[in-house]
Design brief:
The chain has 179 residues and is mainly β. The chain has one helix at residues 2-25; strands spanning 28-30, 34-36, 40-50, 64-75, 81-82, 88-92, 95-97, 118-119, 124-133, 141-146, 159-163. The strands form 3 sheets. Strands 1-11-10-6-7 form a 5-stranded mixed β-sheet, with no helix packed on it. It is flat, with a radius of gyration of 20 Å.
């Protein structure tokens, strides 16, 4: 009887740890859901794929697409803060992609690109741009944002994980038809 109680206790503890890990520690947020980091309140409001600019010209001629993510961000701190774009990474399968905002001004019709702007206590929308292979379009992808710089000495960084929607992209695609 004691063995059954011990075994049941171990199963309950492991199950509780798994639930806490999935629902709290490694929670995956969806587009449109607000989440907190140590310094900011953030929300990914929308995302777009494109390979053309605001004037319907190709951004580049390679086999790449651009994922543009619109974020709403507010500073929760009293000191002036800027976002570090190196803290944002996009993961598609086992590959990681980092923001490449150098061409972001080409999609200015979608919003204002983030360019080391000071984040204030007011909500502001900015665009972050990723160059990804065309074959990655509509694959399952996650955006990771570092929650804090207080854990720099840890081997595993603490990130917020956000699922990028793929189901609404079909009508948002902006393609130029080749002739």
């Amino acid at each position: 009887f004691t063995i059954i109680i011990i075994f049941t206790s171990i199963i309950l503890i492991l199950t509780s740890l798994l639930i806490i890990n999935i629902l709290i520690v490694n929670k995956t947020y969806k587009e449109g859901k607000t989440f907190l980091t140590n310094n900011y309140t953030m929300e990914v409001t929308s995302s777009y794929y494109t390979n053309v600019d605001a004037k319907s010209s190709y951004i580049n001629t390679s086999d790449n697409m651009y994922l543009i993510i619109s974020i709403n961000v507010k500073n929760n701190n009293t000191s002036k803060k800027t976002l570090n774009l190196n803290d944002f990474r996009l993961k598609i399968k086992d590959k990681k992609y980092y923001p490449s905002n150098k061409l972001c001004n080409k999609v200015s019709d979608l919003g204002k690109c983030y360019d080391n702007n000071i984040i204030t206590k007011d909500n502001k929308n900015y665009l972050i741009m990723y160059q990804i292979p065309k074959e990655s379009v509509n694959k399952k992808m996650f955006l990771y944002m570092k929650k804090s710089h207080e854990y720099e000495s840890l081997i595993t960084k603490i990130y917020s994980r956000l699922s990028i929607k793929n189901d609404i992209k079909a009508y948002m695609w902006i393609f130029k038809v080749q002739r």
